[in-house]
Amino acid sequence: MTFANRVVVITGASSGIGRALAVALAGGQARVGVTARRTERLDELVRHVRANGGTIEAHSCDVTDRESALTAIRGLSEKLGPVDLLIANAGLGQTAGADPMNVPVFEQMVRVNLLGVAYAFEAVMESMLARKSGHLVAISSLAAYKGLPGSAGYCATKAAVNTYCEGLRIELRNRGVAVTCVCPGFIKTEMTAGKTHPIPLLMDADAAAQRIVRALRRRPGVYNFPWRMSLMMKLVRWLPDWILARMATTDQRHSTGKSIDPPTR
């Protein structure tokens, strides 16, 4: 399966994985629609893609605002055609655990990471079901598989995304609409910028996008990568709490933060 001439809409496309996915898919002759809050970044992306012969349209929006998200995505569909592939990529990762709790930050992560996915899916669901065709994708994180000290809020939102996608995938199994949850490890984006300690298996956003595009051709239910980080997170799930607590204490001595950084994008 290729994405040539298919309509793809990506949220959170102003930087990181979202931008890299837009460039990669447009380079594969997909008809790409992008959304984000930062209009100047979207304008730069549009110029870049069009200069390289790609087809792209942009519409700024805030994915935490349901009406804004619905208007933007449906507006892109009016310009490009019915959406074949919707990638809910917009994400936010910040410290929110017990000390500090940062409940307002946690609330914002819920709005961006979870509700932003639901609003994006809502914008295309009716059309996909009517056509009995389409692919819904949420960019989650390997952090979904384990609650980590200092990052409880972020991990919780990503675990919720995974479970949400799982329920939708089962419900839509025989209705022609595929659902994929993509869980990357550490990706070089604005979320990982400024970290003062070594980040294991850090991957460039362009390389991550290429892997995701290849995986989405198969329409898997879940795609975890890279495999070594995925295996590491699965092993961490079985570690006793006291070991993780000791790791967090060690991390505090060597970092300005107060958390074991989860895999983020």
Structural class: alpha/beta
Reading the helices and strands in chain order gives EHEHEHEHEHEEEHEHH
Number of helices in the DSSP assignment: 8
Spatial strand sequence of the major β-sheet: 3-2-1-4-5-6-9
What gyration radius follows from the Cα positions, in whole Å?
Answer: 18 Å
Uncertain spans = 253-260
- Overall outline: globular
Features of this protein?
265 residues; alpha/beta; seven-stranded parallel sheet; two-stranded parallel ribbon; 9 strands; 47% helix; 14% strand
Topology, pairings included?
Blueprint: E1 7-10, H1 16-27, E2 31-34, H2 39-51, E3 55-58, H3 66-80, E4 85-88, H4 103-131, E5 134-139, H5 152-171, E6 177-184, E7 187-188, E8 203-204, H6 205-216, E9 222-225, H7 227-236, H8 241-254
What does this protein structure show overall?
The chain has 265 residues and is α/β, with parallel strands linked by helices. Helix content is 47%, strand content 14%. It is built from eight helices and nine strands. It has a seven-stranded parallel β-sheet, sandwiched between helices. Helix 3 (66-80) runs parallel beside helix 4 and helix 4 packs parallel to helix 5 (152-171).
Briefly say what this structure is:
The chain has helices at 16-27, 39-51, 66-80, 103-131, 152-171, 205-216, 227-236, 241-254; strands spanning 7-10, 31-34, 55-58, 85-88, 134-139, 177-184, 187-188, 203-204, 222-225. It is an alpha/beta fold and 265 residues long.
